[in-house]
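Appendix B, example 12.
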Amino acid sequence: MSSPTHYLVIDLEATCSDDPAFPRDEMEIIEVGAVLVDAATLRSAAELQCFVRPIRHPRLTPFCMRLTSIRQADIDAAPRLPSAVARLRELVRGKQALFCSWGDYDKRQLERDARRHGVALPFGREHQNLKRAFARRLGEERELGVGQALRRVGLSFQGTQHRAIDDARNIARLLPVALGLERHDAGAPRRSPAPAVTGAPAAPPAPTLPTPPAPRAAR
């Protein structure tokens, strides 16, 4: 993709358990959260939140419900993954959207579930790992979770942790810092020099993306 018109920030919640015997390759998406960010203004253009009903492990474990605050009733009434993919396709229709997520987990999980259901994802193979980009941009030796990254730039988490839509919104707030972008007076983003990290870390320019409140600890 030469120059995206939008950044598509996606975060997922999936079936999980504190039982080590629970097979990780059988995890399934139970919530999709997506924020479509206009590349010209770095502002949210649209959002998507939907629950997804799993097929391998339809009963959520107590651990999963405590972690995510997602109830069994939420997914019992939800459609299967193809419906969520169709809604993502509608969200990016007519746009050059670059898929972004905090780390590679969401990309792998989305691709695994898409293969399981035999559906094609509505974007190409290009993907931006914002967790890695953020660490490199600020000169961090290790990659930080979302909450840690927000605190690193003087922000606090808004919403409920381990809920896909709230995580996506908070990740979108970090996107300008991770990609080294700031808004130009005319509205077009421009690259900003990487902040020097010496002694006490200097706070980079504050992201300008608005974060509407709404209804996960960081990956």
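The first strand starts at residue 6 and ends at 14. The two ends are 27 Å apart (CA to CA).
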